[in-house]
Amino acid sequence: MSTKNVSQAIKRTLCQSKRIFQAVRIEKFLRKSFSLSEEERLLEAYQCYLFTTAGPIRGRLFITSERMAFHSNKSLKLRTYNGEVAKFPYKVSIPLGKIKKTTPSENLNKPEEKHLQIVTEDGFEFWFMGFNNFKRSFESLFLTISEKQ
């Protein structure tokens, strides 16, 4: 084997090891943040924004075997009744069986801006946007939800 081939093989191995390490780290974070059961498995994780009345919040959308969960990247600050500042992450957890529909949409003025609407059985709406690969994210989420319904 030539030096170039050995070098390329080492690079591939390191990249694969890095991906595995990141996946394990993400799953540990998810288990700690959302108290997953032992049977629940992480299927996908995406960087995106959750649109709220206060504006978009950057974070990570997790799709597990049982739920869809969002966790903000940064903690939000809130003043308590006695004037102290409390910091907490913005978290949303929706059981897959409670999701009524998922609808993709795009901004008519800016077609590159695509949104994902999630509507729960009790009528709550969640809007996600800013996915790196919107099509793949939507298809994965739609397939996972369809299997649970």
Task: Please provide a written account of the structure.
The chain has helices at residues 3-34, 134-148; strands spanning 42-52, 55-64, 67-72, 76-79, 85-88, 91-95, 99-106, 114-120, 125-129. By secondary structure, it is α+β, with helices and mostly antiparallel strands. The chain is 32% helix and 40% strand. The strands form two sheets. The protein has a seven-stranded antiparallel β-sheet, with helices on both faces. Strands 4-5 form a two-stranded antiparallel ribbon. The chain has one domain: Roll (PH-domain like).
For the structure shown, list the relevant keywords.
149 residues, alpha+beta, PH-domain like, two-stranded antiparallel sheet, 40% strand, globular
In the CATH hierarchy, what is the architecture at level 2? Roll
User: How many H/I helical runs?
Assistant: 2
Q: What value does the Rg take, in angstroms?
A: 19 Å
Helix proportion range = 25-40%
Count of domain modules: 1
* CATH domain topology: PH-domain like
Strand content: 35-45%
Structural class: alpha+beta
Average per-residue pLDDT, rounded, comes to 80
- CATH homologous superfamily caption: Pleckstrin-homology domain (PH domain)/Phosphotyrosine-binding domain (PTB)
Query: What's the order of the H and E elements?
Result: HEEEEEEEEEH
CATH class group: Mainly Beta
Low-confidence stretches: 14-21
Total strand segments? 9
Widest sheet: strand order? 6-3-2-1-9-8-7
Q: In angstroms, what separates the terminal alpha carbons? A: 52 Å
* Overall shape: globular
Protein name: GRAM domain family protein
InterPro entries: GEM-like, GRAM, PH-like_dom_sf
Organism: Rhynchospora pubera
Family: Belongs to the GEM family.
